[in-house]
């Protein structure tokens, strides 16, 4: 006997409408839309979280000295200071922010320091076996105990000193020397490069040192402990400079006409588009931007998120400088003149070399120098529109010329203090890495150009000379009162949601009944 199976129908509960889903009100007009109160509260909370996170990020950048500053429009140059060098051709120099101490290195391998307020003489700290080609100082305050390998601060500190705790120099003998900047004593000698060290740079706020060499390697050091942390390869030619910032990154240049960004933590690198000539110098601008200059007369601004320069200033220091006739460029020009039947009208004009560039960290002020007898100052804009590489562009909307400062000789290095108080450079008869061109009409010296910043005009101040006390017919002026603080809106998120709901079709009658 077959039993029949009786299926009972179970009453299903109606699905409840989601509280977070915004719905339309039944009584609202067709052109006016509203969202549920719970959704408004959630959007308010999200907006407040976004605002709080942005405030915390800006506050952290301000405390760490990484707040972006707009100072180029307020910059003015004071009277320059010329310091004759002790002997030899100076190749690199650095100075403290308060213009109290100055250091420089020369091609004889000597390292000197001088106390500027007392107008003392240059005192020799020590020497390399070869030329001193590069120099860098830390931005870390003087500490009693050292830093660990990662470069983090130790717990015990003494009172802050105006003198940076460490000075690093690189020589053509392949060595890097670490000096105590306060006493002038040699602390460590770092061995690892097989050829000349052409660039050294400390991370911002850390005692981690980056070094570039003619052996085509980039090395990362713990300067306090004299420990080699890592080595990177990538350039196919001689490396000419290195710049480090706050992140674990290093921006390098070389005579293979390229610039590279090494990400130390990830172990990766980015190769930028190849130029036409050797890239001589570089500097750190911000966490996302670096600058470089080359022997083709260009100044370039790089973005870490792009593979090509976002701006190229061609012939930044003019064309046609030939030196005093003893250099390679003069000989090349004579050969080209001979090829053009002895006429100078058809002879090509070579762009002047740009051999040094520097910028105030986390600001819009930069400077470049080379041959041609001038320091060019620039204002860096945030409106980057030049996405393509334009090698002949002279009107760049991102790097805008501000003013120039005349110098006598060839600029071989530039260094901007962290606060932008001054720029120091080495000016002499020959470039840093050779004697390809010479200018014997000048004297080797250290050039210090102080920079001052004008105060912004206060827009809230009343205009002087507008006293209407003698005017009888003038109506009484209303007393200015402060308006009550406006209630903060829910932010862009709510505006976007309302805009989407306004474009959405009208809700069905079923949703309206659920809302009731």
Largest sheet: 5 strands, antiparallel
* Helical proportion, percent range: 10-25%
Number of helices: 4
Mean pLDDT: 75
Count of distinct strands: 29
Can you tell me the overall shape?
globular
Q: What proportion strand?
A: 25-35%
Assembly of the depicted chains: single chain
List the helices and strands and how they pair.
Layout: H1 37-63, E1 75-77, E2 81-84, E3 90-95, E4 101-106, E5 110-115, E6 123-127, E7 132-137, E8 166-171, E9 175-180, E10 186-191, E11 197-202, E12 208-213, E13 217-222, E14 227-233, E15 239-244, E16 249-254, E17 259-263, E18 268-271, E19 279-286, E20 289-294, E21 299-303, E22 311-313, H2 328-339, E23 354-359, E24 365-370, E25 374-380, E26 399-406, E27 410-416, E28 422-428, E29 445-453, H3 492-503, H4 509-515
Antiparallel strand pairs: 1-29, 2-29, 3-4, 4-5, 5-6, 7-8, 8-9, 9-10, 11-12, 12-13, 13-14, 15-16, 16-17, 17-18, 19-20, 20-21, 21-22, 23-24, 24-25, 25-26, 27-28, 28-29
Structural notes for this entry:
It contains 4 helices and 29 strands. With 516 residues, the chain is mainly beta. Strands 1, 2, 27, 28 and 29 form a 5-stranded antiparallel sheet that branches. Strands 3-4-5-6 form a 4-stranded antiparallel sheet, with no helix packed on it. Strands 7-8-9-10 form a 4-stranded antiparallel sheet, with no helix packed on it. The chain starts with 36 loop residues before the first helix and ends with a helix. Residues 18-33, 142-162, 341-346, 385-395 and 457-491 have low confidence and may be disordered.
């Amino acid at each position: 006997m077959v039993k029949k199976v009786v299926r009972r129908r179970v009453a299903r509960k109606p699905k409840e409408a989601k509280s977070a889903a915004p719905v339309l009100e039944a009584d609202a007009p067709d052109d006016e839309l509203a969202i549920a109160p719970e959704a408004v509260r959630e959007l308010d909370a999200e907006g407040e979280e976004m605002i709080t996170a942005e405030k915390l990020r800006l506050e952290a950048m301000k405390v760490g000295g990484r707040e972006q500053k707009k100072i180029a429009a307020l910059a003015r140059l004071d009277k320059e200071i010329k310091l004759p060098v002790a002997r030899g051709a100076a190749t690199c120099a650095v100075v403290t922010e308060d213009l109290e101490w100055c250091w420089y290195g020369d091609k004889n391998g000597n390292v000197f320091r001088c106390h500027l307020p007392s107008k003392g003489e240059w005192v020799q700290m020590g020497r390399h076996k070869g030329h001193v080609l590069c120099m860098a100082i830390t931005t870390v305050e003087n500490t009693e105990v050292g830093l660990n390998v990662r470069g983090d601060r130790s717990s015990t500190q003494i009172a802050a000193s105006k003198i940076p705790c460490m000075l690093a120099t690189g020589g053509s003998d392949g060595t890097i020397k670490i000096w105590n900047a306060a006493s002038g004593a040699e602390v460590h000698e770092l061995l690892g490069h097989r050829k000349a060290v052409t660039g050294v740079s400390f991370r911002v706020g850390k005692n981690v040192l980056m070094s570039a060499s003619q052996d085509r390697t980039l090395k990362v050091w713990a300067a306090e402990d004299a420990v080699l942390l890592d080595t990177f390869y990538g350039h196919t030619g001689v490396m000419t400079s290195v710049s480090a910032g706050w992140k674990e990154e290093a921006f390098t240049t070389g005579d293979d006409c390229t610039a590279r960004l090494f990400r130390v933590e990830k172990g990766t690198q980015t190769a930028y588009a190849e130029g036409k000539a050797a890239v001589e110098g570089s500097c750190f601008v911000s966490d996302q931007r670096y600058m470089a200059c080359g022997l083709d007369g260009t100044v370039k601004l790089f973005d870490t998120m792009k593979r090509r320069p976002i701006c190229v200033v061609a012939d930044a220091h003019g064309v046609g400088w030939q030196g005093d006739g003893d250099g390679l460029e003069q000989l090349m020009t004579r050969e080209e003149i001979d090829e053009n039947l002895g006429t100078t009208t058809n002879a090509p004009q070579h762009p002047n070399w740009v051999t040094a560039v520097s910028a105030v960290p986390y600001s819009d002020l930069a400077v470049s120098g080379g041959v041609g007898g001038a320091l060019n100052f620039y204002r860096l804009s945030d409106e980057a529109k030049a996405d393509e590489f334009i090698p002949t562009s002279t009107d760049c909307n991102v790097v805008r010329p501000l003013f120039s400062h005349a110098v006598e000789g060839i600029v071989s290095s530039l260094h901007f203090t962290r606060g932008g108080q001054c720029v120091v450079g080495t000016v002499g008869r020959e470039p840093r890495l050779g004697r390809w061109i010479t200018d014997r009409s000048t004297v080797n010296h250290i050039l210090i150009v102080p920079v001052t910043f004008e105060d912004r005009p206060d827009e809230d101040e009343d205009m002087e000379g507008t006293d209407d006390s003698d005017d009888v017919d003038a109506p009484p002026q209303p007393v200015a009162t402060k308006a009550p603080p406006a209630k903060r809106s829910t932010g862009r998120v709510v505006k976007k949601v309302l805009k989407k709901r306004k474009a959405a079709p009208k809700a069905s009658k079923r949703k309206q009944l659920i809302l009731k």
